[in-house]
Amino acid sequence: MFRLALQRSILSPGRKIGSRQQSRTILTCRPFNVNRTFLNRIHSFKSPLSKQIQWSQRYSMTATTTSVTKPAVAYWLYFNAGMTFSIVVVGGLTRLTESGLSITEWNVISGMKPPRSASEWNEEFEKYKQFPEYKLLNRHMTLEEFKNIFFWEWSHRMIGRFIGVSFILPGLYFASRGHMTRRVAKQTFGITCLLGFQGFMGWYMVKSGLSEALMKEPGAVPRVSQYRLTAHLATAIAIYTSTIYVAADIVRQNKIISGKYPQQTASMLNNPVLKRFRIATHGLGALMFLTVLSGGLVAGLDAGLIYNEFPFMGEGIIPPRKELWSDNYVKPNDNGKWRNLLENPTTVQFDHRTLAETTATLTAALWLYSRKLPLPKNVRVAVNTMMGAVAVQVTLGISTLIFMVPIELAAAHQAGALALLTSNFWLIHALRRVPV
User: Fold this and answer.
1) Could you give the dihedral angle defined by the CA atoms of residues 372, 374, 375 and 377, in that order, rounded to the nearest 10 degrees?
2) Angle at 66 between CA 70 and CA 268, to 5 degrees
3) What's the pTM?
4) In this structure, are residues 407 and 366 in contact, taking their beta carbons and an 8 Å threshold?
5) What are phi and psi of 188, to 5 degrees?
6) Measured between alpha carbons, how far is residue 230 from residues 150, 295, 343 in Å?
7) 425 touches 272 (CB < 8 A)
8) In whole angstroms, what is the distance from residue 236 CA to residue 156 CA?
9) Which of 30, 132, 362, 407 could form a disulfide with 222 if both were Cys (CB 3.0 to 4.6 A apart)?
10) Rounded distance between C-alpha atoms, residue 87 and residue 343, angstroms
11) Which residues have a Cβ under 8 Å from the Cβ of 297 and sit 6 or more positions away?
């Protein structure tokens, strides 16, 4: 091809050559001595347009890897959410068995090793004897009984340490390997900060039950502050819900990017008729969270041990006014009797009942309303699950009250509260709009 092109460029276009002479000329013609480097440059030449196309393809591939978090990160977060669920249940059992004040020190490293020898156990028991719970309530406790409550608190703390390690180390690995987007990295860092704050809140709560000031108060009960207990519970719920929410969002984004998210579901979620329903699910979630926090006050004050009947509280559904708004809980600088809402066991239990009944009623109303709406299958399953969860939770709550707070029922009631919140968050996340 090169020789023909060269021949045509040399010969005059008007000159006729015979076929024999032409073939002889082609055979005897010598090509120019062309620089091979120049030829390589010609063959390797690419237009600016082709370079731009290749750059955009390379950029799009890079953007895909950095703008979508790997699914493995979601599975890791789900695992930690499950561990958080378990530590909330164990924390409830620690409270119900009155084991929370058995370990009187906070040692992050050395506290991981429990006592083994008889001398170590006696030393730990002697430390416990120095504080109000033993002096006022447990003077007849034996060493074997102390070991039982010690292991409940020790297990609770060890699960907390494990969650911290399982969150920090894999999180650093995923971030360093580029498996997380900046947004997810910031979210996981925020959850990690909450974990650190939760450790502080745990010790801050325990410290309130070790105060020697309890010995000077007439009729005082050595227990942790209901305010700090509720704050400790609220932080645990914040860690749990934020973890499952971030994990669910990662899974959802991967389905959207890969094209596996059902187009029909996306179209149904963008229907304007779901706007009110979506707002109602958020409001119901806030009410559920408030109800759980009121349950923390009930646990902190042992308010479940009074009025063990339902639906009445004494002679009526509402306790006597003087008992609800007692002057015994009013302090000199208070403006009114508002402190009854937080410190009066009768008022706290009545508030929890009222919030729980309101939550159950509104959940049933929302479920009935959902029957009239064009909901995708996953949203329908979520709202049905939430309705089932609230029915189970109401049953557990009434049973716990009537049977005077047995440990098994009370622990199941606390786990049910977290399960109900989970179903609500599932519904909220399933209702999020999807770009079509």
Assistant:
1) 110
2) 65
3) 0.81
4) no
5) -65, -35
6) 22, 8, 12
7) no
8) 13
9) 132
10) 26
11) 226, 230, 303, 342, 348, 351, 352
CA distance 298 to 229: 10
CA–CA distance from 275 to each of 203, 282, 431 (Å)? 43, 11, 9
Joined tokens for residue 324: 């609800």
Please give the structure tokens belonging to residue 168: 């920090």
Question: Could you tell me which of 307, 316, 313, 317 has the C-alpha nearest to residue 401?
Answer: 307
Q: Which amino acid is at 236?
A: A
> What gap in Å lies between CA 398 and CA 413, rounded to an integer?
9
Q: Tell me the HSE value of 166 on the side-chain side, using a 13 A CA sphere.
A: 16
Per-residue confidence of the chain (436 residues) as pLDDT tens digits? 444 444 444 444 444 444 444 444 434 444 445 455 444 444 444 444 443 334 334 433 433 445 789 999 999 999 999 999 999 999 999 999 999 999 998 888 878 889 999 999 999 999 999 998 998 888 999 999 999 999 999 999 999 999 999 999 999 999 999 999 999 999 999 999 999 999 999 999 999 988 887 767 766 788 899 999 999 999 999 999 999 999 999 999 999 888 888 888 888 999 999 999 999 999 999 999 999 999 999 999 999 999 999 999 988 999 999 999 999 889 888 888 999 999 999 999 999 999 999 999 999 999 999 999 999 999 999 999 999 999 999 999 999 999 999 999 999 999 999 999 999 999 999 999 987 6
Instruction: Annotate 33-65 with b (16+ C-beta within 10 A) or e (fewer).
Output: eeeeeeeeeeeeeeeeeeeeeeeeeeeeeeeee
CB-CB contact of 106 with 208 (8 Å):
no
